[in-house]
Design goal:
alpha+beta, Beta-galactosidase, Chain A, domain 5, Immunoglobulin-like, 43 strands, globular, binds 4-nitrophenyl alpha-D-galactopyranoside
């Protein structure tokens, strides 16, 4: 419902657009002066001050702060037009921002069009759809003090740390450059300073004292990586900067060409409402997310055999898994890194796999599993046949030197790898052919890894493609090669451009056969391989599951040998991954599993709901409580991250209304197989050992 219209004289001309949830106030001085959530206390921001940066005639220019022309379009959208004039006054660059407020979007959407009306190409750096700066009169508040905010920071790619922060916490950046390249957006390192946060594609904010919340995120990521930058003065707790930026990385825009920006969405909510979830739903819908009906379950070779895996290991595990297949509901059998003759040469095997790839796929299929295979399609070893044959396919720096795609101290043969340029038409054709060939051999499940390499800052063959567009083009070529019915799992992948192409996505760090990793302290690396980091991301990215794709929380390890995790740690990993509703692949030597550990796996596999909800996402890095609805009630998980025992009491009234509470039939702790009791909703969970958990089946009487 819109009740706004232009009114008054020129200088006072203004307009208002009102819906139940949003009031927008605009005028010809500043464009959108203020956006207010009328049902919330002190929830407002403005002015939005859109801007863009580009290079024309050899110089960098910023188009901002001009007095925009504001027009109320026929469909009720507000259009703001900003113009930059070139050397010849007839030549110009325009930035149009379209603002839509309406109940159909449950908030506000903003998108822009950048048009080059010069006689010469320009290089587009960035478009800011929102650029609120306190030094320019910008104001932002969400329920009084920012000291009460919980800030969700989303990492760039699969492995990047994702968590909530309080203002007193810093978002640290790893000490070493090669880690920042492999784990974070190298063009967007963690600020590592109090009050400063950069979140990729979406920022979630909640005022923890009054429950008011806001989500600000890009619905789309087809052509530009989008990020949200928040800077709060830690002393005054006032906001210095809130900015939503699309990054075009200097891509060429030809004379007469228009670039459509990604669409930004802004929404507010009170306690019990979930604007972050609303953003995710809208984004998944816009990007035509692929959501498999059933989350895959199966086996993966990596976390036991690593690169040393050989053909006999594969055959032995196939034989051991056969009898368990139906009981555990295992569908996929996935061979990971270690079979290939070189990184880049995916169709030829090394001496450890004498039967070759087609025979291997056939053998897996005969055993009743769907065969899965690992590749790192955008990485290349300089000694590979591919690099020898096509040195011109590599991504290069401005001096023409091939850039580093990955540095992995664990790869003995080749620690440093280069990256392929998927904007090169020949690379695209090679991707289609290679993946088509793998599919023809019988492989049906494709884990594609180290995908960030395609989106590293570099000089690209096609200068009209940004980093995000380059990655998406590469992923599309792979999808074309494997066909629509094959299962595609992304890993090490910047998230946004993969939505609508992959079926599943790794959403956290690799698990390790130990709870934590000393690199967290030694290298200040909060992204690194570590079971604890994997669990953290599985929890904080739970809201993306079955919305953008099927989440892959990484493998479960249940073995006793070659595993430094305690039994409670193994149970916690299995519980989080099962409860998440995402993929569950086990990665042990199945010929050596004890009955006890096999039973542990049976228990985990028989408790896989569709999805879970985090009850305390604002607990900081490590939320402790998760809940998942099941047919006859709920599964509740409570984790102890401490190094000492805890004996918590859980209040069922926090999750059940009084009617449901009266229907509680049985409370059973699953790992101990123990009946728990409640009085007036209060339930003692007993002693939880360090890094252990309690998984409670709350059964309700069915009426
Ligand atoms: C195979 C592995 C597995 C695993 C993937 C990925 O930062 N690093 O050095 C780093 C190395 C390996 C890695 C992730 C990060 O693991 O996540 O499941 O497939 O590759 O090499």
């Amino acid at each position: 419902m819109k009740s706004g219209a232009t009114r008054g004289s020129y200088l006072e001309v203004g307009l208002e657009i009102r819906t139940e949830k949003i009031h927008l106030v605009a005028d010809f001085e500043r464009g959108v002066r203020e956006i207010v959530a009328p049902n919330l206390i002190e929830a407002r921001l403005g002015p939005i001050d859109a801007a863009c940066r580009f290079v024309a005639y050899g110089d960098s220019h910023l188009l901002a702060k001009t007095r925009p022309d504001a027009v109320l379009e026929e469909n009720g959208d507000l259009r703001l037009l900003q113009t930059w004039r070139g050397q010849d006054p007839a030549e110009r660059i325009t930035l149009s921002v379209y603002i839509h407020v309406g109940d159909d979007v449950d908030g506000v959407t903003l998108r822009a069009q950048f048009t080059n009306e010069l006689q010469t190409p320009v290089a587009l750096e960035s478009i800011d759809l929102l650029n609120l700066r306190s030094d320019n009169g910008g104001k932002f508040s969400l329920g009084f003090s920012a000291g009460e905010w919980s800030i969700l920071r989303n990492g760039w790619q699969s492995w990047s740390a994702t968590r909530t922060f309080r203002l007193i916490e810093r978002d640290p950046a790893p000490r070493f450059a090669f880690l920042r390249e492999m784990e974070e957006n190298p063009a967007n390192p963690s600020p590592n300073r109090h009050g400063r946060y950069t979140s990729e594609q979406v920022l979630g904010l909640r005022n923890i004292s009054n429950g008011q919340s806001m989500a600000l995120g890009f619905l789309t990521c087809r052509q530009a990586f989008g990020d949200i930058r928040l800077e709060v003065n830690p002393k005054s707790k006032s906001t210095d900067l809130l900015r939503a930026r699309c990054h075009y990385d200097g891509m060429t825009v030809q004379p007469g060409q228009t670039v459509d920006s990604e669409t930004l969405w802004l929404g507010f909510g009170t306690r019990g409402q979930d604007p972050l979830g609303d953003w995710a739903q809208a984004s998944g819908k816009t990007m035509e997310a692929r959501i498999p009906e059933k989350s895959p379950a199966g086996w993966c070779s990596w976390y036991y055999y690593y690169t040393k895996v050989n053909q006999d290991d594969v055959y032995e595990n196939l034989a051991a898994l056969g009898p368990l297949r139906e009981e555990l509901g295992l569908e996929f059998f996935q061979l990971d890194d270690g079979y290939q003759s070189a990184i880049g040469d995916w169709l030829t095997v090394n001496e450890k796999f004498p039967d070759g790839l087609p025979a291997l796929a056939a053998k897996i299929t005969e055993s009743g599993f769907r065969p899965g295979i690992w590749t790192a399609p955008f990485l290349v070893d300089t000694k590979s046949q591919l690099a020898q044959d096509h040195p011109d396919w590599l991504l290069r720096d401005s001096k023409g030197r091939p850039i580093r795609g990955a540095y992995n101290p664990l790869w003995a043969k080749c620690r440093s790898l280069k990256a392929l340029d998927p904007t090169h038409p020949e690379v695209q054709a090679w991707l289609v052919q290679t993946f088509h060939a793998l599919r023809q051999m019988g492989w049906e499940f494709f884990k594609i890894d180290f995908l960030y390499a395609a989106a590293l800052p570099a000089v690209r063959r096609n200068p009209a493609m940004s980093r995000a567009a380059a990655l998406r083009a590469g992923l599309q070529a792979i999808r074309e090669g494997i066909g629509d019915d094959a299962f595609l799992l992304g890993c090490g992948c910047p998230l946004g451009p993969a939505v609508g192409i992959v079926d599943a996505m790794r959403i956290g760090a690799d698990v390790t056969p130990r709870w934590s990793n000393p690199m967290r302290w030694l290298a200040r690396d909060h992204h690194c391989l570590s079971t604890l980091h994997s669990i953290r991301n599985t929890i904080h990215r739970a809201f993306l599951h079955r919305v953008w794709w099927c989440n892959d929380p990484d493998c479960v390890l249940v073995r006793e040998n070659k595993n430094k995790m305690t039994l409670p740690e193994v149970q916690t990993l299995a519980s989080v991954n099962a409860l998440s509703g995402g993929m569950v692949l086990v990665s042990d030597d199945m010929t050596q599993l004890s009955n006890e550990r096999l039973n542990l796996l049976r228990t985990a596999m028989s408790h896989r709901p569709q999805a879970m909800r985090v009850l305390d996402p604002d607990a900081g890095e490590f939320p402790t409580k998760m809940l998942a609805p099941v047919d006859d009630g709920y599964l509740l998980l409570v984790i102890n991250y401490n190094k000492d025992d805890v004996s918590p009491i859980f209040d069922l009234k926090d999750i059940l209304d009084l009617k449901e509470l009266a229907r509680v039939n049985q409370l059973r702790e699953i790992w101990l197989n123990q009946i728990l009791h409640q009085h007036d909703g209060l339930m003692r969970l007993g002693v939880i050992p360090p890094h252990g958990c309690r998984l409670v089946h709350i059964r309700l009487k069915q009426d």
